[in-house]
């Protein structure tokens, strides 16, 4: 009965690489950029996020947080992008948020669908987003989300066939257009490039305090290319399992025939 251990081993492999438990995404990447007012009151950037001018009720005196997540529910599902931007205790709420995209990213079913926003009726624009954004470090192409109710917390999500890559964001309050008084925020890696020159590329991944600096100062956003960036194995099928078992049985039969043809 030497084939029994081999068969059990193969069945064990099947269970080890079987699909994830119900309710868990097939892939999940997430990270957080934060700004916390420093004791000295001078620094206007920390933990991957930079804020604008100092005012008596400015974002430089408040906690500012951006949390992002990108998930793939199944190997064949679209990518799900989710973002939450929050500023604590300010007089002026969020005027708009811009997420970088590739130049060819437009409002099509393939690129952008199932949009959900915490601010009902939020206005969306796609393309160049330079106007109305004081303090924007560089020209930015992306999705602009403009809530109608100037909230302190803005959360939104969408599905896309476009795979995640590293990029930038910009957000502003409703105070005005003068950079000297307007409150705004963006990731500290905005002008430094999305990749580390010493490394060919960083694959999508979750970001922690131990991640490389280039990742801790950016966020994941949709690219031009469709499909997952990583190699995703095909789910195991009954047919595949059947072929494995058939191989084991065939191996056992061949072994028995060999033993019969060579009697002691």
Condensed summary:
The protein has 264 residues and is α+β, with helices and mostly antiparallel strands. The chain is built from three helices and 14 strands. The chain has helices at 3-16, 213-216, 238-261; strands at residues 27-35, 45-46, 49-51, 64-72, 79-87, 94-100, 113-117, 123-128, 141-146, 153-160, 162-167, 169-173, 184-187, 219-226.
Helix content: 10-25%
Total helices: the number is: 3
In total, the number of domains comes to 2
**Neighbour order of strands in the largest sheet:** 2-3-13-12-6-9-8
What features would you describe in this structure?
The longest helix is centred in the last third of the chain and has 24 residues, at 238-261. A seven-stranded antiparallel β-sheet has the order 2-3-13-12-6-9-8, with no helix packed on it. The protein has two domains: 3-18 and 236-261; 27-226, no CATH class. The model is unreliable at 1-19, 229-249 and 251-256 (pLDDT under 50). The protein contains three helices and 14 strands. The chain has helices at residues 3-16, 213-216, 238-261, and strands at 27-35, 45-46, 49-51, 64-72, 79-87, 94-100, 113-117, 123-128, 141-146, 153-160, 162-167, 169-173, 184-187, 219-226. Helix 1 (3-16) runs antiparallel to helix 3. By secondary structure, the chain is an alpha+beta fold. It starts with a helix and ends with a helix. It is globular and about 50 Å long.
